[in-house]
Amino acid sequence: MATGLLEGVIANMPMFRQVARPQLVELARHARVQHVRRGATVCRRGESLNCFFGVAYGLLKLALRANGGEEKVLRLVGAGETFGEALVFRERPNPLEAVALADTMLVVFPSQAVISLFEHDLNFARGLLASLSERMHDLVSEVEASTLLSARQRVATYLESLAAENANGRARLPATKTVIAARLGVTKETFSRLLRELANQGLIEVEKRDILLRDRAGLAAVAQGALHA
Amino acid sequence: MATGLLEGVIANMPMFRQVARPQLVELARHARVQHVRRGATVCRRGESLNCFFGVAYGLLKLALRANGGEEKVLRLVGAGETFGEALVFRERPNPLEAVALADTMLVVFPSQAVISLFEHDLNFARGLLASLSERMHDLVSEVEASTLLSARQRVATYLESLAAENANGRARLPATKTVIAARLGVTKETFSRLLRELANQGLIEVEKRDILLRDRAGLAAVAQGALHA
Known about the structure:
Chain A is of the alpha+beta class. Chain A has nine helices and eleven strands. In chain A, a hairpin with a 5-residue loop joins strand 4 and strand 5 (71-78).
């Protein structure tokens, strides 16, 4: 890919929006593009990575896997988003596997280039810290969901968070029900049953992967654990 | 407390070890001391904090609480450690409650002083990022433990991590069994039963809060899920 094009792709990732032009050019010079097919593994647990990744287009899942093979999807990473930043600043084996859920174009940023950017561009440094702080917040919410919330509360909370991005109360599952179930720590069957129950209560309408939130107050009550089936 | 003394306390916290003397003096000038009694709440969930905290001496628990009152202890914070950094760089309501488990002396760092230090001291900026990255790693492990590991595996993993800090294979529970059970997401009864089972298998010896790891390979096998009771 021409460097000019790559620069444009990078400039559009929220992580790099505040970066000054000369630094952006320098970063693009060190970055490289990686195309991955749907189903391909981008990185494995335990690997040493010397880079972090941005998604130009496509979709990935970041997942933990039990010895027995059971999977916990921790995060779905879509266009414009980045992952693996924390490993740049603390050399540790990668704890998560990343698998492409669609044909995906990645931008690979070598650690050294990112550290250099961090040290020379205060806006980037601030943005990176804010982004990691946000990620930590999400991880705390994840611990909360998996230890203190029922499956029903987790599903309601997740639907709320999806719809929060759309003013009209419509949400679209960003991946298959199997992946979303693994994201929420339930079986696919339980996930389908809980969606049916919420629909029967008149709180949502489900049409394949599209979900209309009909009663947000009611859904919030379910998320809070106040309303039972 | 005299500023000179406070400077010494701060300089001894790993988070500030790399900070240059003049910056340290400036930070100490803005920091303040807070004494909390055992059992007292330092901050509540949902509060806006404009600071982060260091522990000079004592012990705190950072916990999530379900609507029903069930508690998940996420982290124990002891002497020299800090907490709440992430909230300085992303204004969000505090997600965790902090309660003193012993009489504790805190150092309170106002956000503005920390942001200023971050912007003027590259060593501190690097150290802070490394520290948040480590914290993220711990949170990912926490999600893994709570979603993919059995109670038995969690207990074995926890004992291993405690003993890793002591070359002689001795571990001391840093808090009561009730608190450690809430840390591991099990009831106190289950925690006591699992300790007894591991002792009966000859893997550990328990004497109140002191635990001797007799068979680390065996314990590692339990942590991996390879060895069952």
